[in-house]
Design a protein that fits this description.
Layout (H helix, E strand, L loop, with lengths): L32 H12 L19 H8 L13 H17 L9 E5 L2 H22 L8 E5 L4 H9 L3 E5 L21 E7 L11 H15 L5 E4 L7 H4 L12 E7 L11 E5 L11 E5 L2 E5 L9 H37 L4 E3 L8 E6 L9 H9 L7 E3 L8 E6 L6 H19 L17
Parallel strand pairs: 2-3, 2-4, 4-5, 5-6
Antiparallel strand pairs: 1-7, 6-7, 8-9, 10-11, 11-13, 12-13
Length: 456
């Protein structure tokens, strides 16, 4: 009697499943599709539950129709506008929609593009600042070798990368208990003739708070009057640029301020799309230097491109268009309001616990942070609470605040579409239970180097 074929063998006795293989060397022989699929699934089940990951801002849920739209666009290369002209037109539609959403004076005169994420979008905004500053300095016969960029000490790490990669001096304005965000206070001490721009954050990643862009712009207006320095603003709206238009429509932070030259956002955060997708829009094409735009011949056509990446997926761009059509303005407002309702429900519940003091309550983007009250306990820290919650599947990071406030540890919750009020109630119960457990300790928890689960 002949031995059974691989197709007939039970899954976990097949070659590949029944043996250990190297993780760092490509196998010498092929395996059955079902076997390879099973191995991959077996390994990825060790990941956490994405919907319980309240550390990340990135979307972890989309509806079934969106998944079908996604699957139908997997094979499209966003850069190949000659082969996929309608996908290119959809990209154009999307950034024009954003230009109008952000109150561009004339969206037809704006310019924008999709990117892999808001980090790339930020770098393009920074590069436009640097190139325009260099051109102006050289035209005036001045030195153009020492550009600097002014931003909050709580800035997202992508701006640190931008300054590192593109030889720009970062100038960090420290936040404090009195000035929890970059708000224009003492800004004149940090800007000079070599300042290419100021970054304003709509939704600081540490806490979720908005930086008051109008106050920053007003401070720069005063600097302009007194020194002649005309310094533009890039709004890093990774999260808030897709929240404020819907939940705080009267807040002036966008292209209604003349000093705001460019705005970036993450389509894969509160744009509600799976990763990775970002957008950047300039209020007017004049603010994007022509020498940053490349005309390239690709697969039979010529096209302009000014993103850092070349080949990249078009599926997320199509998903963004699907959501703009599917939800409309009122649908986005409802989704973002639901997330904020959950955030404020959670922050109110946490504020009632004697152990904690809120840093903010989720009234800006649906994100909030809290700290242990001074003197509450010497037996445990927020890192211990982080670990206790992680044992129940919840990822809620604890981490130190940025420079000058690093002695303060906070814990943060990011509420996204997919965290229902029912799940939030379960989370609040888990927090209450674990705090009661920790408060009942008769001696300090073992100490080791804190393991922050902080994710921008």
């Amino acid at each position: 009697m002949s031995a059974p074929s691989s197709d007939d063998q039970p899954m976990f006795t097949r070659p590949g499943e029944a043996t250990l293989t190297s993780r760092h060397v490509i196998p010498a022989t092929e395996s059955l599709p079902d076997t390879a699929k099973q191995i991959v699934e077996d390994e990825t089940i060790l990941d956490g539950n994405a919907r319980l990951n309240l550390a990340t801002f990135v979307s972890t849920w989309m509806d079934d129709d969106a998944k079908q739209v996604y699957a139908a666009s997997f094979d499209k290369n966003m850069i190949d506008k000659d082969e996929y002209p309608q996908t290119a037109a959809i990209e154009d539609n999307c950034w024009h929609m954003l230009a109008n959403l952000w109150n561009a004076p004339d969206a037809d005169k704006s310019i924008g593009t999709s990117t892999i994420g808001s980090s790339e979008a930020c770098m393009l905004g920074g590069l436009a600042f640097k190139r325009r500053w260099q051109q102006a300095r050289r035209a005036a016969g001045k030195d153009a070798s020492s550009p600097n960029l002014v931003m909050s000490s709580a800035v997202q790490v992508c701006w640190e990368k931008f300054c590192n990669y593109f030889d720009v001096e970062p100038r960090y304005v420290p936040i404090s208990a009195e000035h929890k965000t970059l708000d224009g206070h003492d800004l004149a001490k940090y800007v000079d003739e070599n300042t290419i721009g100021v970054v304003a954050i709509m939704g600081v990643t540490y806490t979720g708070m908005y930086e008051p862009v109008a106050e920053i712009a007003a401070a720069l207006d005063e600097i302009h009057k007194s020194t002649g320095l005309d310094i533009p603003i890039h709004v890093d709206g990774a999260s808030g640029a897709m929240i404020a238009p819907f939940l705080q429509p009267d807040l002036v932070w966008d292209f209604r301020l003349d000093r705001v030259h460019s705005i970036s956002t993450s389509g894969h955060k509160y744009g509600l799309v799976y990763p990775g997708l970002g957008w950047v829009v300039w209020r007017d094409a004049q603010w994007l230097p022509e020498d940053l735009v490349f005309k390239v011949s690709y697969l039979g056509g010529e096209m302009p491109t000014f993103a850092l990446n070349f080949s990249r997926p078009g599926a997320q761009v199509v998903l963004q268009y699907y959501l703009f059509l599917r939800l409309g303005f009122e649908g986005y407002r409802a989704v973002q309001q639901a997330s904020q309702d959950v955030a404020k429900f959670l922050s109110a519940g946490i504020a009632k616990l004697d152990a904690f003091e809120l840093w903010n309550d989720g009234s800006d983007i649906p994100v909030f942070a809290w700290r242990l009250k001074d003197g509450h306990t010497k037996n445990w820290t927020l890192y211990h609470l982080q670990d206790r919650l992680r044992m129940k599947g919840w990822l809620i990071p604890a981490y130190p605040m940025p420079a000058d406030l690093e002695q303060i540890t906070v814990q943060r919750i990011v509420v996204r579409n997919g965290l229902s009020m029912d799940l939030a109630a379960e989370l609040l119960q888990a927090i209450e239970t674990e705090v009661a457990y920790l408060d009942a300790l008769e001696s300090p928890m073992p100490t080791e180097k804190p393991q922050s689960a902080f994710h921008h």
